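If you are new to this repository, start here. Below is one unmodified record pulled from the training split, so you can see the exact layout before writing a loader.
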Amino acid sequence: MGDPLVSVILPVYNAGKTLPETLDSLLAQHFEAFEIIAIDDGSDDDTPAILNTYANRDPRIQTLSPGRQGLIGALNTGIDHARSDLIARMDADDFSHPDRFGLQYSFLQTHPDIALVSCLIRCFPEAHVGKGFRIYEAWLNSLTTPEAIAREIFIESPVCHPSIMI
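And here is the target side for that same chain:
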């Protein structure tokens, strides 16, 4: 594979319980021209071993272990190592629909006036999602135009960070 069309920034901290499912959802993408930059933010569980196992199986996965930096530091480290101008975000306890990257990439290619694209979200596990989070989910999913996002920018982040491509 040549240079990736999308760099996925995946900060990880003590995510051994959820990381395999997250990585499996990324590797199941129908759009395959991406790299995953997984930044281990000083984990002391089995996260490093999981990352190494997956990186040994798929050359698109690059692991970095800069030590504990916190979320912002880990994100910036990942961005510094990105080989693509397009950045997709993911968290180590989330899943992505298999068409996510393809749809987001295509949208950004055909709409050069748009800098960021997000997608609808679903909170899980359903049995543990309370009323407040359901309201938040519905609010996020109602913001489907640039105008709606701009209108709500000062209420709360109008896009779910691990669902964006920028």
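Two things worth knowing about this chain: The radius of gyration is 16 Å. Residues 60 and 145 are 32 Å apart (CA to CA).
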